Amino acid sequence: MRWRTLLVLALTTSLVAACGDDDDSATSAATTTAAPTSTTAESTTTTEPPDVEAAPTAYTVTVEDPGAEPRRQLRLQAEVGGVDRVTQRQEMTIEVRTGDQVQSAPASATEMDLDYTIEEVTDETITVAGTYEDVRVLETPGSDPAANAQVAELLEGFLSATATTTYTTSGAVRSAEIDGLDLTGSAGPMAEQLAGSLIESVESLSMPFPDEAVGAGARWRIDTETEIAGLPVEITTIIVLSELTDERATGTVEQVLRFVPGDVEVFGNPATVVSGELSGGGPIEWDLAGGVVPRSDLTTSGTTVLEVQGTTIEQTQTQRMTISAR
Question: Which of 3, 110, 196, 307 is 20 to 30 Å apart from 122, CA to CA?
């Protein structure tokens, strides 16, 4: 199986994302709208506020421990015109087994510099426009130069794009889209699929605050059901709040992603999910006084088994995703 095919499969199971609609145009917009978030202290019943259209991703937030006094309701604050500058770095190692063949190599390490400009603020939502200031593929020991070149071409299409995201003040993603993606190069179709993957990953992995007041030591669980490139996924996220001030909240994240077995379609190819689970976590920090994108350093690992066109593909991977201020 060629490396390009393996790269697509790696993107499928590592970005925690779903592909967008196909479009033959030179530029395109990919869009997703998130379902509303509900919180509960003891149950997992999801309720939907009026006038909000439900979408494939739904969250349930359950407070397991409210933490120490003093407690308060966590909400993001922002002002129109504010700019949040971050660097998103992804590193990944992959081992892919197909039959008797095993391919093992560090995948390309990538970085994206984004500027998030606050465009609109209401009592319930914050809308930001993210522009890609720079994208980079970093050379890592043992990485495949051909794969690095493919990824670099893939990322260049984002330099002309703008990512617009609307968050609730509790940190859940209400909607997301990418406009102006350059699809004119040979990597255009894959870039569009990746764009859809990125916006869906923002949706499915957002970590909303509970409605209840919490304090240091608080623990809450976020249960999410979504799809990754047509693969049904159940996500359980546990957040423990270690410190809380007027401007910042810091804590740790533990996350488990379970791929639901069954027949699916991966980027247009019929496939069967045999099994799959990724787990891990790390530190996280929210800027409550002006930032909407939490800073985090999360590492996940696990194994996914797919059957594609009669071939069993077993992929074991470790991925580190870091979002930092710049």
Answer: 196
